[in-house]
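Submission checklist for the structure archive. All mandatory fields must be present; incomplete records are returned to the submitter.

[x] Identifier: MoxR family ATPase
[x] Organism: Vreelandella neptunia
[x] Residue count: 311
[x] Sequence attached
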Amino acid sequence: MTTSTPQPDSHCNANDVFNVQMPWEIPYFSKAEEHVPEIDPHFHFVESATRAILMGFAQNRRVYVYGPHGSGKSSHIEQVAAHLNWPCIRINLDGHITRADLIGRDMVVIRDGKQVTEFVPGMLVWAMQRPIALILDEYDAGRPDVMFVIQRVLETQGKLTLLDQNQVITPHPSFRLFATANTAGQGDASGLYVGTQALNQAQLDRWHVTTELGYMSEEAEMHLLQRKLSELPSEQVQRMVTCAGLLRQAFAQGDVTTLISLRTLISWGENSLLLNDPHEAMRLSFFNRCDEVERSLVSEIYQRCFDVELI
Protein backbone atom coordinates (compact mmCIF):
# COMPACT_ATOMS: atom_id res chain seq x y z
CA MET A 1 0.00 0.00 0.00
CA THR A 2 1.24 3.45 -0.83
CA THR A 3 1.12 6.16 1.80
CA SER A 4 1.48 9.26 -0.35
CA THR A 5 -1.46 10.84 1.49
CA PRO A 6 -1.01 9.82 5.16
CA GLN A 7 -3.67 12.26 6.39
CA PRO A 8 -7.09 13.30 5.04
CA ASP A 9 -6.49 16.35 2.87
CA SER A 10 -10.07 17.52 2.22
CA HIS A 11 -13.46 17.84 3.92
CA CYS A 12 -17.01 17.13 2.78
CA ASN A 13 -20.53 17.83 3.99
CA ALA A 14 -22.22 14.73 5.44
CA ASN A 15 -25.61 15.77 4.12
CA ASP A 16 -24.29 16.08 0.56
CA VAL A 17 -22.56 12.69 0.57
CA PHE A 18 -24.57 10.51 2.98
CA ASN A 19 -27.84 12.43 3.35
CA VAL A 20 -27.39 12.76 7.13
CA GLN A 21 -26.97 15.88 9.25
CA MET A 22 -23.74 16.24 11.26
CA PRO A 23 -22.50 19.32 13.18
CA TRP A 24 -19.09 19.23 11.52
CA GLU A 25 -17.56 18.43 8.15
CA ILE A 26 -16.11 14.99 7.45
CA PRO A 27 -12.42 14.61 6.53
CA TYR A 28 -11.63 12.53 3.47
CA PHE A 29 -8.75 11.60 1.19
CA SER A 30 -8.76 13.20 -2.25
CA LYS A 31 -7.06 10.16 -3.78
CA ALA A 32 -7.95 6.50 -3.36
CA GLU A 33 -5.32 3.99 -2.24
CA GLU A 34 -5.32 0.27 -3.00
CA HIS A 35 -7.22 -0.72 0.17
CA VAL A 36 -10.13 1.68 -0.39
CA PRO A 37 -13.34 -0.36 -0.94
CA GLU A 38 -15.31 0.05 -4.16
CA ILE A 39 -18.40 2.24 -4.02
CA ASP A 40 -21.72 0.41 -4.31
CA PRO A 41 -23.96 2.89 -6.17
CA HIS A 42 -27.09 1.10 -4.91
CA PHE A 43 -26.16 1.07 -1.24
CA HIS A 44 -28.74 2.43 1.21
CA PHE A 45 -27.30 4.32 4.20
CA VAL A 46 -29.30 3.99 7.42
CA GLU A 47 -29.18 7.34 9.18
CA SER A 48 -28.54 6.25 12.80
CA ALA A 49 -25.78 3.79 11.89
CA THR A 50 -24.21 6.18 9.38
CA ARG A 51 -24.06 8.99 11.95
CA ALA A 52 -22.34 6.68 14.44
CA ILE A 53 -19.82 5.49 11.84
CA LEU A 54 -19.07 9.06 10.75
CA MET A 55 -18.25 9.87 14.38
CA GLY A 56 -15.63 7.16 14.15
CA PHE A 57 -14.04 8.51 11.00
CA ALA A 58 -14.30 12.23 11.75
CA GLN A 59 -13.70 12.28 15.51
CA ASN A 60 -11.63 9.10 15.99
CA ARG A 61 -14.27 7.42 18.14
CA ARG A 62 -14.22 3.64 18.59
CA VAL A 63 -17.51 2.38 17.11
CA TYR A 64 -19.24 -0.93 17.92
CA VAL A 65 -22.03 -1.88 15.49
CA TYR A 66 -24.29 -4.83 16.33
CA GLY A 67 -27.39 -6.37 14.83
CA PRO A 68 -28.79 -9.46 13.08
CA HIS A 69 -26.88 -11.23 10.34
CA GLY A 70 -27.11 -9.82 6.85
CA SER A 71 -28.25 -6.37 7.97
CA GLY A 72 -25.23 -4.62 6.41
CA LYS A 73 -23.07 -3.82 9.44
CA SER A 74 -19.66 -4.29 7.82
CA SER A 75 -20.96 -2.99 4.50
CA HIS A 76 -22.03 0.28 6.15
CA ILE A 77 -18.52 0.89 7.46
CA GLU A 78 -16.92 -0.11 4.16
CA GLN A 79 -19.23 2.09 2.11
CA VAL A 80 -18.59 5.11 4.34
CA ALA A 81 -14.87 4.43 3.90
CA ALA A 82 -15.34 4.08 0.13
CA HIS A 83 -16.99 7.50 -0.14
CA LEU A 84 -14.21 9.03 1.97
CA ASN A 85 -11.41 7.25 0.05
CA TRP A 86 -10.31 5.88 3.43
CA PRO A 87 -8.32 2.62 3.25
CA CYS A 88 -10.22 -0.13 5.04
CA ILE A 89 -9.52 -3.77 5.92
CA ARG A 90 -11.50 -6.42 7.78
CA ILE A 91 -10.36 -9.10 10.21
CA ASN A 92 -12.78 -11.89 11.10
CA LEU A 93 -12.24 -12.83 14.75
CA ASP A 94 -13.01 -16.51 14.30
CA GLY A 95 -11.63 -19.19 16.61
CA HIS A 96 -8.47 -19.55 14.53
CA ILE A 97 -7.27 -15.96 14.98
CA THR A 98 -4.54 -15.94 17.62
CA ARG A 99 -2.67 -13.30 19.57
CA ALA A 100 0.32 -13.80 17.28
CA ASP A 101 -1.84 -13.18 14.20
CA LEU A 102 -2.68 -9.72 15.56
CA ILE A 103 0.61 -8.80 17.24
CA GLY A 104 3.16 -10.63 15.13
CA ARG A 105 5.81 -13.30 15.58
CA ASP A 106 9.44 -14.13 14.89
CA MET A 107 9.77 -15.77 11.49
CA VAL A 108 12.59 -17.05 9.31
CA VAL A 109 13.04 -14.82 6.25
CA ILE A 110 15.63 -14.54 3.47
CA ARG A 111 17.91 -11.49 3.61
CA ASP A 112 20.79 -11.17 1.13
CA GLY A 113 20.55 -14.87 0.33
CA LYS A 114 20.73 -15.89 4.00
CA GLN A 115 18.11 -17.17 6.40
CA VAL A 116 17.61 -14.82 9.32
CA THR A 117 15.04 -14.64 12.09
CA GLU A 118 13.16 -11.36 12.42
CA PHE A 119 9.91 -10.06 13.86
CA VAL A 120 7.04 -9.87 11.35
CA PRO A 121 4.20 -7.63 12.58
CA GLY A 122 0.65 -8.99 12.74
CA MET A 123 -2.39 -7.39 11.15
CA LEU A 124 -3.27 -5.20 14.14
CA VAL A 125 0.25 -3.77 14.45
CA TRP A 126 0.48 -3.33 10.66
CA ALA A 127 -2.84 -1.46 10.51
CA MET A 128 -2.13 0.74 13.53
CA GLN A 129 0.90 2.23 11.79
CA ARG A 130 -1.09 3.29 8.71
CA PRO A 131 -4.06 5.51 7.76
CA ILE A 132 -6.44 2.55 7.81
CA ALA A 133 -9.93 1.87 9.13
CA LEU A 134 -9.74 -1.57 10.75
CA ILE A 135 -12.99 -3.54 11.10
CA LEU A 136 -13.03 -6.39 13.62
CA ASP A 137 -15.82 -8.64 12.36
CA GLU A 138 -17.63 -11.16 14.59
CA TYR A 139 -16.24 -9.31 17.59
CA ASP A 140 -18.38 -11.24 20.08
CA ALA A 141 -16.88 -14.53 18.86
CA GLY A 142 -13.23 -13.64 19.58
CA ARG A 143 -11.07 -15.72 21.90
CA PRO A 144 -10.52 -14.20 25.38
CA ASP A 145 -6.73 -13.97 24.98
CA VAL A 146 -7.18 -12.17 21.66
CA MET A 147 -9.74 -9.77 23.13
CA PHE A 148 -7.38 -8.66 25.88
CA VAL A 149 -4.78 -7.76 23.24
CA ILE A 150 -7.31 -5.40 21.66
CA GLN A 151 -8.42 -3.84 24.94
CA ARG A 152 -5.46 -1.47 25.31
CA VAL A 153 -5.80 -0.29 21.71
CA LEU A 154 -9.38 0.79 22.36
CA GLU A 155 -8.25 3.96 24.08
CA THR A 156 -8.41 6.90 21.67
CA GLN A 157 -4.64 7.35 21.83
CA GLY A 158 -4.09 3.74 22.84
CA LYS A 159 -0.52 2.62 22.38
CA LEU A 160 0.42 -1.03 22.05
CA THR A 161 3.49 -2.35 23.85
CA LEU A 162 5.38 -5.18 22.16
CA LEU A 163 7.11 -6.79 25.12
CA ASP A 164 9.23 -9.16 23.04
CA GLN A 165 10.52 -6.27 20.93
CA ASN A 166 10.88 -3.63 23.67
CA GLN A 167 8.82 -1.40 21.41
CA VAL A 168 5.76 0.81 21.83
CA ILE A 169 3.47 1.20 18.81
CA THR A 170 1.80 4.61 18.58
CA PRO A 171 -1.32 4.60 16.38
CA HIS A 172 -1.18 6.58 13.14
CA PRO A 173 -3.30 9.77 13.43
CA SER A 174 -5.62 8.43 10.72
CA PHE A 175 -5.96 4.92 12.15
CA ARG A 176 -9.61 4.11 12.95
CA LEU A 177 -11.09 1.12 14.77
CA PHE A 178 -14.54 -0.43 14.33
CA ALA A 179 -16.20 -3.67 15.42
CA THR A 180 -19.26 -5.55 14.21
CA ALA A 181 -21.16 -8.22 16.10
CA ASN A 182 -24.48 -10.03 16.19
CA THR A 183 -25.03 -9.23 19.88
CA ALA A 184 -24.64 -6.20 22.12
CA GLY A 185 -21.96 -8.05 24.08
CA GLN A 186 -24.32 -9.57 26.63
CA GLY A 187 -24.41 -13.03 25.04
CA ASP A 188 -26.98 -14.63 22.74
CA ALA A 189 -30.25 -15.83 24.27
CA SER A 190 -31.88 -16.63 20.92
CA GLY A 191 -29.58 -19.53 20.01
CA LEU A 192 -29.09 -18.11 16.50
CA TYR A 193 -25.44 -17.20 16.88
CA VAL A 194 -23.54 -20.22 18.13
CA GLY A 195 -20.01 -19.36 19.23
CA THR A 196 -20.76 -15.85 20.46
CA GLN A 197 -20.12 -15.01 24.09
CA ALA A 198 -20.66 -12.34 26.69
CA LEU A 199 -17.92 -9.73 26.45
CA ASN A 200 -15.81 -8.31 29.24
CA GLN A 201 -17.64 -5.25 30.59
CA ALA A 202 -14.39 -3.33 31.06
CA GLN A 203 -13.73 -3.80 27.36
CA LEU A 204 -17.25 -2.86 26.27
CA ASP A 205 -16.86 0.31 28.32
CA ARG A 206 -13.95 1.35 26.10
CA TRP A 207 -16.07 1.54 22.96
CA HIS A 208 -17.03 5.19 22.66
CA VAL A 209 -20.04 4.64 20.38
CA THR A 210 -22.43 1.68 20.29
CA THR A 211 -25.17 1.47 17.68
CA GLU A 212 -27.68 -1.16 16.60
CA LEU A 213 -28.36 -1.83 12.94
CA GLY A 214 -31.49 -3.88 12.25
CA TYR A 215 -33.19 -4.74 8.99
CA MET A 216 -34.57 -1.97 6.81
CA SER A 217 -38.20 -0.97 6.57
CA GLU A 218 -40.25 -2.62 3.82
CA GLU A 219 -40.19 0.59 1.80
CA ALA A 220 -36.39 0.89 2.02
CA GLU A 221 -35.92 -2.79 1.12
CA MET A 222 -38.18 -2.37 -1.89
CA HIS A 223 -36.24 0.65 -3.14
CA LEU A 224 -32.94 -1.17 -2.63
CA LEU A 225 -34.05 -4.28 -4.53
CA GLN A 226 -35.51 -2.18 -7.33
CA ARG A 227 -32.21 -0.32 -7.71
CA LYS A 228 -29.98 -3.36 -7.32
CA LEU A 229 -32.11 -5.79 -9.34
CA SER A 230 -33.87 -3.51 -11.80
CA GLU A 231 -34.87 -6.42 -14.07
CA LEU A 232 -37.21 -7.85 -11.44
CA PRO A 233 -40.88 -6.87 -11.92
CA SER A 234 -42.06 -4.33 -9.33
CA GLU A 235 -44.96 -6.56 -8.26
CA GLN A 236 -42.60 -9.45 -7.58
CA VAL A 237 -40.29 -7.22 -5.52
CA GLN A 238 -43.23 -6.04 -3.44
CA ARG A 239 -44.38 -9.61 -2.80
CA MET A 240 -40.87 -10.71 -1.87
CA VAL A 241 -40.45 -7.90 0.64
CA THR A 242 -43.91 -8.52 2.11
CA CYS A 243 -43.11 -12.22 2.45
CA ALA A 244 -39.80 -11.44 4.17
CA GLY A 245 -41.62 -9.13 6.60
CA LEU A 246 -44.17 -11.83 7.50
CA LEU A 247 -41.41 -14.41 8.00
CA ARG A 248 -39.60 -12.02 10.34
CA GLN A 249 -42.81 -11.50 12.31
CA ALA A 250 -43.14 -15.28 12.61
CA PHE A 251 -39.56 -15.44 13.85
CA ALA A 252 -40.19 -12.70 16.43
CA GLN A 253 -43.23 -14.64 17.69
CA GLY A 254 -41.19 -17.83 17.98
CA ASP A 255 -43.08 -19.67 15.23
CA VAL A 256 -39.98 -20.18 13.04
CA THR A 257 -36.33 -20.35 14.04
CA THR A 258 -34.72 -19.33 10.74
CA LEU A 259 -34.43 -15.60 10.14
CA ILE A 260 -34.53 -14.25 6.58
CA SER A 261 -31.95 -11.49 6.20
CA LEU A 262 -31.54 -8.71 3.67
CA ARG A 263 -28.61 -10.70 2.25
CA THR A 264 -30.93 -13.67 1.70
CA LEU A 265 -33.55 -11.41 0.14
CA ILE A 266 -30.99 -10.16 -2.38
CA SER A 267 -29.83 -13.74 -3.10
CA TRP A 268 -33.45 -14.73 -3.67
CA GLY A 269 -33.82 -11.93 -6.23
CA GLU A 270 -30.53 -12.76 -7.96
CA ASN A 271 -31.41 -16.47 -8.17
CA SER A 272 -34.86 -15.56 -9.44
CA LEU A 273 -33.29 -13.71 -12.37
CA LEU A 274 -30.90 -16.58 -13.08
CA LEU A 275 -33.66 -19.22 -13.06
CA ASN A 276 -36.54 -17.04 -14.25
CA ASP A 277 -38.48 -18.72 -11.45
CA PRO A 278 -39.00 -16.87 -8.12
CA HIS A 279 -40.50 -19.94 -6.44
CA GLU A 280 -37.56 -22.27 -7.12
CA ALA A 281 -35.24 -19.41 -6.22
CA MET A 282 -37.00 -19.12 -2.84
CA ARG A 283 -36.50 -22.83 -2.21
CA LEU A 284 -32.80 -22.63 -3.00
CA SER A 285 -32.18 -19.33 -1.15
CA PHE A 286 -34.12 -19.86 2.06
CA PHE A 287 -36.74 -22.62 2.22
CA ASN A 288 -34.33 -25.59 2.02
CA ARG A 289 -32.45 -24.48 5.15
CA CYS A 290 -35.58 -24.12 7.27
CA ASP A 291 -36.36 -26.77 9.88
CA GLU A 292 -38.52 -29.49 8.33
CA VAL A 293 -41.12 -29.06 11.09
CA GLU A 294 -41.45 -25.36 10.22
CA ARG A 295 -41.57 -25.66 6.44
CA SER A 296 -45.36 -26.01 6.33
CA LEU A 297 -45.74 -22.63 8.08
CA VAL A 298 -43.14 -21.02 5.81
CA SER A 299 -44.99 -22.45 2.81
CA GLU A 300 -48.29 -21.10 4.15
CA ILE A 301 -46.81 -17.60 4.51
CA TYR A 302 -45.35 -17.84 1.03
CA GLN A 303 -48.68 -18.93 -0.43
CA ARG A 304 -50.36 -15.88 1.08
CA CYS A 305 -47.94 -13.65 -0.84
CA PHE A 306 -47.48 -15.57 -4.10
CA ASP A 307 -50.47 -17.96 -4.23
CA VAL A 308 -48.00 -20.82 -4.80
CA GLU A 309 -47.23 -23.86 -2.62
CA LEU A 310 -43.53 -24.44 -1.91
CA ILE A 311 -44.09 -27.99 -0.64
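[x] Structure attached
Curator remark: The chain has a mean pLDDT of 89. Residues 234-252 form the longest helix (19 residues).
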